[in-house]
Amino acid sequence: MGRLLAIDYGRRRCGIAVTDVLRIVATGLTTVPSAKLTEWVKAYMAAEPVDWIVVGLPRDMRGRDSESMRWIEPGIRRLRKELPGVRVVWFDERFTSVLAHRAMLDSGMKKSDRRDKATVDTMAAAIILNDYLQSNRYADDCLAPPAAQGS
After folding, report:
1. Out of 4, 28, 99, 113, which could bridge 122 as a Cys pair, Cβ 3.0 to 4.6 Å?
2. Going by C-beta distance under 8 Å and a sequence separation of 6 or more, which residues neighbour residue 130?
3. pLDDT of res. 151
């Protein structure tokens, strides 16, 4: 069984989180410049087994795709093109940045550290992945054939 990798895709940088090999918990890993995402994921996957990738799907309060999909979709298309055999699924990311800020406050993190947007992006990716692991969607995706590309 391989890890799951999550991406909180942003215009400038992407927060990255991964599960342990048993897929019990997700932890924030790093941030990567958006322009370098595909090459970073390929290098990571050469070193670690990854079964599929979960990408945060930005939605507005009415459940529609947000404006940021204009730059996210082309980036994920490139990723899929470069990794054709890897399942990539979208998962709702609403409120993950707010939850990341709240978690930073609750943990007693210093104000200067809370201002670091890279930390927020990494925590948001971990929240997306943990939420995905706890969802019914994850259970369904585990049963789907590997060739199925998520929507």
Report:
1. 28
2. 25, 26
3. 53
